[in-house]
Amino acid sequence: MPWTHHSHSGQFCGHAANTLEEIVQAAIKKRMSVLCLTEHIGRHRQDFYPEEEDHHDEASLAKLYDDFYVEARRLQTAYEASIAIFVGFESEWIRPESLSIVRDLLAKYEVDIWVGSVHHVHTLPIDYDHTLYYKARDIAGSDESLFANYFDDQFQMLQALQPPLVGHFDLIRLKSDDPDRSFRTWPKVWEKVMRNLQYVADYGGVLELNSSSLRKGMKAAYPQVGICEAFRMAGGRFTLSDDSHGTQQVGLNYDKTLTCVEAAGISHLVHLVTTEQGDGDLTGKLPHVRWKAVSVAELKEHPFWTAPS
């Protein structure tokens, strides 16, 4: 039963490992029932990551997603008897032009799901390494100001796109000097957090409980327990994601993530299904898929938790 709604492969992502098919096979081995394949989208040339320098232009990087989409749909059909696969992408929000890239991709492909994420502040990737995080902080003036800038950028993304799934809501804390610090200690930042959470809850978006922070040394999944509590109280819904970048990370640290779920008082999680199976919708943006709610108590009874690693 456990699911992941956010994943990557080394075949189509320069900082990941393994083929896309190997990711699918790893999810099946872990007895997952839902796997969302959400590769990164193209970006403008000035925003390429170091590992993407072999892509000489924007068209070359964009073609990588085109190739991914074809392979992902092939795997969706090939493995439909073993696992429900959904195909989409993880978006970027770097500069005003980012909006056109996302909209063009949504117009080009009929995706099943997509993740709205922010990885950059002041056009710098704040999750790539400490050097770039500190450079962005120097521009902002302090950690507190940089966090505030991040949530303002995120709010712009939310307003412009209303993504059905919001990725690693508080990613900004990853490279900070105190990544487990409570956001409540900065009232102005917390106010922006609450604004964003309420907006997502109001349009019906879902927050992912992203376990990747745990493999990177943090004490809790994205988002922090306090943020999860606030979103729950706002009527928001949650799902599970591993944000895996290779087979070894598929379903990794879900046991610790479940501890965060229970600490936040979350009683139900949702996962993606086809229209015929679901009990909700994605605000009309993706009419062929829906969210289905499952109680945490039922989830804990699934064989996933005793599956071989």
Automatic annotation (TrEMBL):
Coiled coil: none
Recorded GO MF terms: histidinol-phosphatase activity
Catalytic class of the enzyme: hydrolase
Gene3D superfamilies hit by this protein: Metal-dependent hydrolases
Pathway: Amino-acid biosynthesis; L-histidine biosynthesis; L-histidine from 5-phospho-alpha-D-ribose 1-diphosphate: step 8/9
An example Gene Ontology biological process: L-histidine biosynthetic process
The EC number(s) this enzyme carries: 3.1.3.15
Domain of life where this protein originates: Eukaryota
Cytoplasm found in the keyword field: no
Annotated catalysed reactions: L-histidinol phosphate + H2O = L-histidinol + phosphate
Residue stretches making up the PHP domain: 5-212
Protein keywords: Amino-acid biosynthesis, Histidine biosynthesis, Hydrolase
SUPFAM superfamilies cross-referenced by the UniProt entry: PHP domain-like
InterPro entries tied to this protein: Histidinol_P_phosphatase_HisJ (IPR010140), PHP_dom (IPR004013), Pol/histidinol_Pase-like (IPR016195)
GO cellular component terms given for this protein: cytoplasm
Pfam families xrefs: PHP
Family, per entry: Belongs to the PHP hydrolase family. HisK subfamily.
The name this protein goes by in its record: Histidinol-phosphatase
Organism: Salinomyces thailandicus
